[in-house]
Design brief:
It is built from 8 helices and 11 strands. Strands 6, 7, 8, 9, 10 and 11 form a 6-stranded mixed sheet that branches. Strands 1-4-5 form a 3-stranded parallel sheet, with helices on both faces. By secondary structure, it is an alpha/beta fold. It folds into 2 domains: 106 residues, Spore Coat Polysaccharide Biosynthesis Protein SpsA, Chain A; 122 residues, Spore Coat Polysaccharide Biosynthesis Protein SpsA, Chain A.
Length: 246
C-alpha cells in the first residue's frame, strides 16, 4: 500500500507535484508496481484529486478517512476492508519515495513473511556526511536483527576516533514498513508515546510497547524522501540518471 495525503505543509500538494512531468504519487506507484514484489499494489488517499489522478493511470486506489495522523493508520484502515482480508503481510511504501530500492521492500517484507518478527523495516549504511542531520533517521539494532531504537540524533554516538564502530556503520532507516495483520491492528490501537511525540517518529510507538521490529540491512544507498521544494528539485535533477541506471 502507498498512503498519500494532500495536506503536507513543507511541500504543498505533494502527491500531485511533478517529477519528470508526472505526478509524484504516480512515479512511486510505477516504481513499486513494476518490481513484482507484492500480489497487489494499492494507493490509499483521503483526497479525490489524488484518487482521480491515480485511477486515470489504471492504478487501484481506495479512499480513506480524513482524520488519520499517520500513513500506518491509513494503511490499517485499508487492511480491514473486505477485499484485502486475505493478505497476511501488508507493506507500507511512503508516497514520496520514488527511488526506493527493491531490496528495501523485499527485506522489510521478509522480516514478517518469514515469521521472524511481527513488524519489519529496512536500513542501510548512512552517509557519514549526513549522519548528524535530523532529517536522516538512524536505527540501532540488536544481534538478532530487531530494532533497539530509532532516532534523529546520530546513534550510536562515536565518542572516540578509534572506536571499534566506524561512522560508516551507522545505519540509516529506510521509510518502508511491513506488518502482520495482528501487529498492524495492535500498533494503531496503542496510545501515543512520549518518545514518538518527542522524536516525531511513529515507529517508536510499537517499539516502546514491546512489539519487536525486524530490520533488514540492505547495501543500496538509501533514497531520501521528498519533503521540500529543494528535495523536489534534486529529485528532478536525479531522475534521468536514475532511469539510465535501472
Amino acid at each position: 500500500m502507498i498512503p498519500a495525503r494532500l495536506a503536507a505543509v513543507r511541500l504543498p500538494h505533494k502527491p500531485l507535484r511533478l517529477l519528470a512531468g508526472v505526478p509524484l504519487i504516480i512515479r512511486v506507484w510505477q516504481r513499486v508496481a513494476t518490481m513484482n514484489v507484492a500480489d497487489a499494489c494499492v494507493v490509499a488517499t483521503d483526497n479525490e484529486s489524488v484518487a482521480s489522478v491515480v485511477r486515470a493511470e489504471g492504478a487501484e486506489c481506495v479512499m480513506t478517512d480524513l482524520g488519520h495522523e499517520s500513513g500506518t493508520e491509513r494503511v490499517a484502515e485499508v487492511a480491514e476492508m473486505p477485499q484485502f482480508a486475505d493478505f497476511g503481510t501488508i507493506v507500507n511504501v511512503q508516497g514520496d519515495e520514488p527511488f526506493i530500492a527493491k531490496s528495501a521492500i523485499e527485506g522489510a517484507a521478509s522480516m514478517v513473511s518469514s515469521g521472524r518478527f511481527p513488524l519489519g523495516t529496512s536500513a542501510s549504511p548512512a552517509d557519514p556526511a549526513t549522519a548528524d542531520t535530523p532529517g536522516v533517521v538512524k536505527v540501532v539494532i540488536a544481534d538478532d536483527g530487531r530494532a533497539l531504537y530509532f532516532s534523529r540524533a546520530s546513534i550510536p554516538f562515536v565518542r572516540d576516533a578509534d572506536s571499534p564502530l566506524p561512522r560508516a556503520d551507522i545505519l540509516q532507516h529506510i521509510g518502508v514498513y511491513a506488518y502482520s495483520r495482528d501487529a498492524l491492528a495492535r500498533w494503531v490501537a496503542l496510545p501515543h508515546n512520549a518518545l514518538e511525540n518527542t522524536e516525531r517518529l511513529e515507529q517508536l510507538r510499537p517499539l516502546a510497547a514491546g512489539i519487536p521490529i525486524g530490520v533488514a540491512i540492505v547495501r543500496e544507498a538509501p533514497a531520501s524522501g521528498i519533503d521540500t521544494e529543494t528535495d523536489l528539485s534534486r529529485a528532478n535533477a536525479r531522475w534521468q540518471e536514475f532511469i539510465a541506471g535501472r
